[in-house]
Amino acid sequence: MTQQPAVNHPDTDGTRSPVGSGLSGAEVMARTEAGLANTVSDAPSRTLGQIFRANLLTLFNAIVGCSFCLLLLLGQWKDALFGLAAAGNILIGVVQEYRAKKSLDRLAILNASPARVVRDGTAQDIDLQDVVRDDVLLLRVGDQVPADASIIDGEGLELDESLLTGESHPVSKGPGSEVPSGSSVVAGHGRARVVRVGADSFASKLTAGAKRFSMVNSEMRNSLNRILRWITWLLPPVMILVINGQMQASGGWEQAITTGSWRTASVGAVASVIAMIPLGLVLLSSVAFAVGGLRLARQKVLIQELAAVEGLARVDVFCLDKTGTLTEGKLVFDGVHEAGASPKPGWRQVLGWFGTDPQANATARCLAGAFPSGTSLRPSSTVPFSSARKWSAVSFGSDQFVGGSWVLGAPEIVLREDTPDTARVVEAAGRLASIGLRTMALAYLPGPLPVRDAAEDQAPDGCAPVCLLTFRESVRPDAAKILDYFREQNVEVRIISGDDPRTVAAVAREVGLDAENGYDARELPVDPDLMLEALENNVVFGRVTPEQKRDMVLSLQRGGHTVAMTGDGVNDALALKEADIGIAMDSAAPATKAVSRLVLLDGRFDRLPGVVAEGRRVIANIEWVSVLFLSKTAYAIALSATFGALLWDFPFLPRQLSATDGLTIGIPAFFLALMPNNRRYAPGFLKRSLSFAGPAGLVVAAAVFAINLYSTAVGGHTSSATRTASVLTLSLTGLWILAVISRPLNLRRTTIIGAMHLGLVFVLAVPFLQDFFGLEWPRNDLLLTALGNALGGILAIEALHRCQRRRNARK
């Protein structure tokens, strides 16, 4: 081929450096000092100290921490056990965010292999960050381009840009063509001049977008945070009301301070405040997510953020990249198709030679395993393959049984002559290409290869068709079955790829999707509403750029969808980052894995149903236990406000609430959160939980208030006995809430409920526990009243549950 003249670019000082000698040492120094080196100033992510302060210094933690410290100062360490749960919540928040930070800090799109440049007339290997603008790069097979560059010259130069653009076919590059940083040389060699470095390069811009910190969108976490915000703003006024009530119940502020009874009043105030906070709910939710993550780890699924276990169960649109997800990311030989008359003898050996030729491209190399080795053949001349020519050729001497010339390439290029035979073969090749197969034609030309044609892009004249060869992408064997599963679960699927839409549609049909035609993303509207309409009405999209992938995900989210996306290339990183759940395959680029929420470590697509099932188990179980915690918050707020307004002592000590919480909520909730549960996800977790927990909590509060009202009205009962009666009433009604939400009951759940009732008996009957929790067995009248109130509360909770079940059935 004729070589085009080299392209020079002006230096920063207005001069030009000769291409052959590259930059001089002085020019490199000048560019480095001018900030034109290939370094990227990372925007620092939050430090560990900043993360810790953000999770610690909140109004919520301030109230809990002050209450904890107050009890320690008063010597009431038995009542300060809630501090352990609060510390656990802070620790979990710090660990989750720090893990996400470390993952993003490690993100890199360019590999650390050195770059080869020409400086002062000699080839040198230098570090990537030492490359400067206008450096002359020497590109060889296997090299990764360290910075955006423009091709100066080359021979058969082809680059794989699939990690960056999604286009799986190698791209031919000639003089003047730009090559993005991060692409890899797969054929030929050449020289290129660097045009953009550092933060301005393509790979760096992708990295910067992917490094932006974000937490997975979790309905559970969002709902819990919303509850905590509500409680945080409720706490100050309720605290004032309770503290004033406690002081007035002790004889007024002046007397309480004078006599020291403010200490007892303070303990009661702390008890009311801590009772309103569902400390264990956040902790238990994180534990449930963590256990789910461990279970998935045994299935070779890496969870990079715990809440992702829940997120996948909420997904209603799955965006799949074709290469590396539906397919295995490699081309395989498909078959031989006749081209008319009996082929010339030796054609199989010739195909074997093409497959083992050191200059063979990726397509031709697929022939090596399907045909006899042609290493014994001795060519007299060859023309290497290039994407510009779209053909390669070889000539053998007349003394060999395969004597003559053989041409392998695109059918429409190799079979140029308009004859009935060639027209029929080219038409057949078109039909094969329309079903997603890549085609090549093997042609024969008697005699040696004409020198003139070998030097030009045009294939030789007079080529006679020998056979058609087809190639296809290897589809993952489990892909069709998994897509069937998602259809059954009412999860829509969208195939998004950088390849030709016809090829993508053919692969989609092979895995069972109804995709007659693919949508060319070059025609995709920019307007978000029109883009959403196109996404709703089409399944397969081809020629999609990395930015379009991200915009498509955002458009689906604006349309109210919860989006999951799988991918393995750097071109997928931005979309994976924006998706509600990003899933990387084992073969994914490091940058892609870094921004993904889940990584399939063994690349098995059939792991996804198990991940969905685990997410549904976590969601359903946390919804169960949230009812327990929220009902406690409801009755605590009601009791605090009521007793504070009436200027009565709060009916529990903090340690007593720790005991009732453990028996009615904490211990059983731990086991319930880890049990099997295959219930389908339904939006509205918080609304459903509060619709039962709120009224149930008011029922409990009414039962406890009634026992205190009776004790006050009758008189003669000690405060310890009244508190014990309150503990009994609260525990029995709380355990019935546990029994209600555990339905349908099985042996395991019944055992847990029974064990909690037995635990209540031990707390009330064992002297050591009585003394520790400040309990005193009440007189018979107060005991019977407590049991009667508990029974009334149980009946009310049962009626409430039945009403809610009928309401849900109607919906």
TrEMBL record:
Question: Which residue ranges does the record assign to the P-type ATPase A domain?
Answer: 111-208
Q: Which UniProt keywords apply?
A: Membrane, Translocase, Transmembrane, Transmembrane helix
What membrane topology is annotated for this entry?
A: Multi-pass membrane protein
Q: Does the keyword Magnesium apply?
A: no
Pfam families registered for this protein in UniProt: E1-E2_ATPase, Hydrolase
Q: This protein's superkingdom? A: Bacteria
What the entry lists under InterPro entries is as follows: ATPase_P-typ_cyto_dom_N (IPR023299), ATPase_P-typ_P_site (IPR018303), ATPase_P-typ_TM_dom_sf (IPR023298), ATPase_P-typ_transduc_dom_A_sf (IPR008250), ATPase_P-type_domA (IPR059000), HAD-like_sf (IPR036412), HAD_sf (IPR023214), P_typ_ATPase (IPR001757)
Query: Where does the UniProt annotation locate this protein?
Result: Cell membrane
Which portions of the sequence form the region Disordered? 1-23, 167-186
Ranges annotated as spanning the membrane: 54-74, 80-98, 227-247, 267-291, 624-647, 659-677, 689-710, 722-740, 752-770, 782-801
- Answer whether the UniProt record assigns the keyword Transmembrane helix to this protein: yes
Principal location class: membrane
Protein name per UniProt: HAD-IC family P-type ATPase
Q: What species is given as this protein's source?
A: Arthrobacter gyeryongensis
